[in-house]
Amino acid sequence: MNRREFSLMVSAASLLGVSAEGQSSGAGQLVSGVYPAGKEHKAGEGRVSQPFLTGMLQPTLRLEAHETVIEPGAPPEETRNHLHNEIWLMKAGTVELMADGVKHVMKAGDLGLVVAGGMHYVKNIGTDRASYFVLAVGPPE
After folding, report:
1. Nearest-5° Cα angle at 40, 12 to 115
2. Mean of the per-residue pLDDT values of the chain
3. From start to end of the chain, where are the E strands?
């Protein structure tokens, strides 16, 4: 990932701090504003996700933001890759982020990054709930 791509991700994150109540969180064009948390839904065994937004920043740049909570002892998510980049900001707990075969430990306050195409999974390896905020930035998929 180059500096320009990283700058785009940081700029995308700043969207979450400006007001535009009532904006849709669909896959349309995003506008500056506040995007309230959506309804929590089950995202696998022992895993809950809460969406904030999904949409386009530019015709070829998609942004998704959500929070995930993983219970202790929950099975790991499947190993996968995407066309987009993913950034995780740990809020609580301890997880293992496997990125391209290398296992990393993330705890509250840490930031994890997997660049587009990187094989990865996230697994709660602690004794408490783990929660993290995710920004996914890349082409439409």
Report:
1. 35
2. 85
3. 41-42, 47-58, 61-70, 85-92, 94-99, 102-107, 111-114, 120-124, 130-138
Q: Return d(Cα 108, Cα 111) in angstroms, integer.
A: 9
Query: Which phi and psi angles does 62 have, rounded to 5°?
Result: -100, 140
Question: Could you tell me which of 74, 8, 68 has the C-alpha nearest to residue 38?
Answer: 68
Q: How many CB atoms lie within 10 A of CB 130?
A: 26
Q: What is the pLDDT of residue 76?
A: 87
Name 85's Cβ contacts closer than 8 Å, sequence gap at least 6.
Answer: 1, 5, 9, 113, 114, 115, 116, 136, 137, 138
Overall average pLDDT of the 110-132 stretch = 97
Residue 132 pLDDT > 50: yes
Q: Which domains does the chain have, with CATH numbers?
A: 3-138 (2.60.120.10)
